[in-house]
Amino acid sequence: MCQHRPPCPSPDATDREAAHVVAHHPEQGWSLLCNGVLLFEDTGELLPDGRVIAPARCRAKAAA
Under 8 Å CB-to-CB from 26, ≥6 apart: which residues? Predict the structure, then answer.
């Protein structure tokens, strides 16, 4: 998907949020990155293959 040079991180990379924003909808609370990741304002993510990454605040509670 990414046409940038250097290419953006893949959806499986740990730095996937560094990809360029191709659509931003703050009124709905999400952005689409050029690697296909949907990034939500609560820091949750939906990967192109359907996997869900929980918001960071949920991960912090689980670790406690």
Answer: 41
